[in-house]
Each structure stands twice: as structure tokens, then as C-alpha cells.
Specification:
199 residues, single chain
Length: 199
């Protein structure tokens, strides 16, 4: 079985508040600001291949000086991904030891992806291929990004198990023909993999 991992909040914790802690005094104020500027929809466009320069210009045009904390995000991005989820990495090691071939598909900006590679070098060592949405200008859960992985590596979707913390992405993988599970905790994933006879 080919095992295909998501990365953010599966292998690497994404602590978005870390990028905004110097700008706001509480998590509640951070959340209110992120909602005010529509951060998550805005950031998703960078995951889909838009440049940070274009993104910053867009946000400044719409929000003026209020854009600054968000446009500062790329320079603070590394702080948001400092923590590996070691329980999942332990499962990666066990799966590799059992002979499963490992891949990854991540919604991630091409321009900030080097932060992940630098902070978590295992990402460049354990996976046969990593499909990065910002490089491909495609996003999960669209079938096209799953198709890239399979075409590039000669994989049959039916021989793949996809693991992601997003139910929408899991549904997209299933619609493409992969088996897929929603990640909640390393312990929950261990149980699921064991029940499937993969560990």
C-alpha cells in the first residue's frame, strides 16, 4: 500500500497565532483580526500559487494599514511551523520499516515551503515524492492534485491510502478513488492503520 500524508497539522503543527502574537494581546484579538481581513481565504490563494508580493498588494488595497499584520506573515511563517507532531513521525518510521512507500500532498505556498524543508529535514528524506500545491497551482480537495501525484509516480489510486486532517480533503481523495482517513491524533491514526493491517 502507498501511504500519502498531508503535512500541516498531521506531521507539522501549524500554530498561526505565533505569527501575530507581537501584534495583538490575546488569541481572541488575533482571531478577530484574522476574520476581519479574511486571512484564511486570502492565504489559500498563496497555497494555490499566488505570489506573496501580489497577495500583499491585494490586502493593502482592500484594508490599508490594517493589512500590515497579515502582510508581515511570510517573514514570521517559520515561527508557525516550529513543532513536529512526533507521534505521527513515529508512525511514518514504522510504516517505512514495514515496506510501505510514502508520499505527501500538501496545500502550501511555494515561497514558504523552504521554511518547512529547513525546519523539518525529514520531509525531504522519507517521502518518495511531495506534491506542493503552490508549485503545481492546484489545491486539495480538487481531483487534479491527486492526479498529479499518481501520474508522476505511476500509482493506481486504489492502491493509495490518504491521511489528512481536513474532512473535505479526505472526501476529495475518496472521490478520486483513494482510500482515505481523517487524521485527529497520532493515537487514532495508529488504531486505524493497525485495523487495516498496515502496522
Amino acid at each position: 500500500m502507498n501511504i500519502v500524508f498531508d503535512i500541516g497539522n498531521v506531521l507539522v503543527r501549524w500554530n498561526l497565532n505565533a505569527a501575530f502574537a507581537d501584534h495583538f494581546d490575546s488569541p481572541e484579538l488575533i482571531d478577530a483580526y484574522l476574520d476581519e481581513v479574511g486571512f484564511h481565504d486570502w492565504n489559500r490563494l498563496q497555497d494555490g500559487g499566488r505570489s506573496w508580493a501580489e497577495a500583499s498588494a491585494d490586502l493593502r488595497a482592500r484594508h490599508g494599514e490594517r493589512a500590515h499584520p497579515a502582510t508581515d506573515y511570510p517573514s514570521r511563517h517559520a515561527e508557525t511551523i516550529a513543532e513536529p507532531i512526533e507521534g505521527t513521525w513515529a508512525l511514518v518510521d514504522r510504516l517505512a520499516a514495514r515496506g510501505h512507500v510514502l508520499y505527501a500532498i500538501t496545500n502550501w505556498s511555494d515561497e514558504t515551503w523552504p521554511d518547512a524543508q529547513r525546519l523539518h529535514p525529514r520531509l525531504t528524506q522519507v517521502f518518495r515524492d511531495v506534491v506542493v500545491s503552490g508549485q503545481e497551482k492546484l489545491l486539495k480537495p480538487d481531483a487534479a492534485i491527486f492526479r498529479v501525484l499518481c501520474a508522476r509516480n505511476g500509482l493506481d489510486p486504489a492502491d493509495c491510502l490518504f491521511i489528512d486532517d481536513s474532512p473535505a480533503n479526505v472526501a476529495g481523495a475518496r472521490a478520486f478513488g483513494m482510500e482515505a482517513v481523517v487524521f485527529t491524533t497520532p493515537e487514532g491514526l495508529e488504531t486505524d492503520l493497525s485495523e487495516r493491517g498496515l502496522l
